[in-house]
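Budget justification aside, the reviewers requested a transparent look at the raw inputs and outputs of the sequence design task funded under Objective 1. We therefore reproduce one unedited record. The lines immediately below are the structure tokens for a 424-residue chain.
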């Protein structure tokens, strides 16, 4: 039998609303795949891969598969396409510096002499290593040979920056003497300390704190990744105990780290970005390094990041940054929301901060449970809803999505017939 024509196959999926060129490309794929030429399945699979808005009902607040921090502050409705003064100084009318205002906003929050913004935490570390170490050596504790996921492995990042890695200590214990010995054998080496942000070593353990490393007389780079801006969390009414063990940028700099690198999305709750903060000479050299040009973010990110930092500065972070709203909302409020959804069974649940932050730390939460594994149906809703399994049933955690989406969740559950479910 001859295969169907590309055109006929493409027209057969017109109801899906894909741009015609994509319907055609999927039709070609279907023909290449052979009978039964299921172009509809291919098109739907493609649509399922396109980035789109979803409701994160997993209970993992910073979900790595769902872009971690939900972005948006007061500026969330801004049009995507517009001019931005990313490198234009409105006062003088001449070319400006895209990094400078971000550094100025960070300064009062973390007391850093200078900060630089790049695309993500991985680029931040890569740029610092390439700038500071060049082809020199970097000392790292064997207890801090972290893999973050997605291929970010400390030994490989160090290797790709051109430096030589010197491992010291053991998996569970590294002492100051280990660093001293390595420095004696490798004069001119620097020290990299890495926050093991997604695992915990318990028992007979020892790692050397930054303030002791800082006394060794060589630059200390501290990659905290998912740490806090300030351990006192002054933007909250009271520090959140689930985060009390997280390292903080401000305190690490005060303890003597030369530069600290961290993510702009993880615990900052801003857009995906990487930050380098600390010694003005070192950060300034990073900004002059040819790699900076390749790693710097665009205007949308810089605007969103500036907006996020302003919320920390004006004291409205808790009420305007979704991450902090989700972390600090109380149980009674979540319960009222669950009851307003009005379908399924309201249960106590445990939410996670996620994204490798505070491993093992959970927050009490509230969930709505519906019978059976309905996750795939939830994902195929007009606004896809990502839920998690609870035994044989499905749980939607209310802490990890916006209260504004409760009505969409209710509508989805109604469409799925959850009102007819026997209430147990
Ligand atoms: C997350 C993390 C990184 C990488 O940050 P990205 O923004 O994901 O690139 C690096 N180091 C540590 C310790 C981290 O936790």
């Amino acid at each position: 039998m001859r295969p169907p024509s590309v055109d006929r196959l493409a027209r057969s999926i017109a109801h899906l609303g894909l741009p015609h060129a994509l319907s055609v490309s999927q039709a070609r794929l279907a023909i290449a795949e052979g009978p039964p030429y299921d172009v509809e399945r291919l098109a739907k699979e493609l649509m399922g891969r396109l980035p789109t808005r979803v409701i994160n009902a997993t209970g993992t607040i910073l979900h790595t598969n769902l872009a971690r921090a939900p972005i948006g502050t007061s500026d969330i409705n801004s049009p995507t396409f517009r001019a931005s003064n990313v490198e234009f100084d409105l006062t003088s009318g001449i070319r400006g510096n895209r990094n400078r205002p971000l550094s100025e906003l960070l300064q009062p929050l973390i007391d850093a002499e200078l900060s630089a913004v790049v695309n993500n935490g991985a680029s931040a570390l890569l740029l610092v290593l390439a700038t500071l170490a060049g082809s020199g050596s970097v000392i790292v504790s064997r207890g801090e040979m972290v893999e973050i996921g997605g291929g970010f492995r400390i030994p490989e990042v160090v290797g790709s920056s051109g430096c030589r890695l010197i491992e010291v200590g053991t998996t569970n214990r590294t002492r100051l003497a280990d660093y001293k010995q390595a420095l004696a054998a490798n004069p001119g080496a620097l020290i990299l300390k890495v926050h093991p942000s997604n695992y915990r070593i318990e028992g007979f353990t020892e790692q050397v704190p930054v303030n002791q490393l800082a006394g060794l007389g060589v630059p200390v780079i501290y990659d905290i990744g998912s740490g806090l801006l300030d351990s006192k969390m002054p933007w909250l009414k009271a520090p959140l105990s689930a985060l009390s063990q997280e390292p903080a940028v401000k305190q690490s700099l005060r303890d003597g780290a030369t530069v600290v690198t961290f993510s702009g999305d993880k615990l900052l709750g801003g857009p995906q970005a990487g930050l380098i903060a600390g010694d003005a000479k070192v950060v300034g050299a990073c900004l002059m390094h040819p790699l900076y040009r390749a790693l710097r973010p665009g205007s949308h990110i810089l605007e969103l990041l500036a907006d996020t930092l302003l919320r920390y500065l004006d004291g409205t972070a808790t009420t305007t940054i979704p991450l902090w709203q989700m972390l600090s909302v109380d149980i009674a409020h979540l319960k009222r929301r669950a009851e307003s959804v009005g379908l399924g069974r309201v249960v106590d649940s445990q939410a996670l901060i996620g994204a490798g932050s505070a491993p093992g730390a959970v927050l009490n939460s509230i969930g709505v449970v519906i019978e059976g594994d309905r996750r795939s149906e939830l994902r195929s809703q007009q606004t896809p809803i990502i839920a998690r399994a609870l035994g044989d049933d499905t749980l939607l955690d209310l802490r990890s999505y916006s209260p504004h989406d409760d009505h969409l969740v209710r509508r989805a559950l109604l469409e799925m017939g959850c009102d007819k479910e026997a209430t147990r």
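Residues 120-122, 146, 148, 152, 194-195, 197, 223, 225-226, 263, 266, 274, 356 surround pyridoxal-5'-phosphate (CB under 6 Å). Residues 299-313 form the longest helix (15 residues). Computational costs for records of this kind are itemized in the attached budget.
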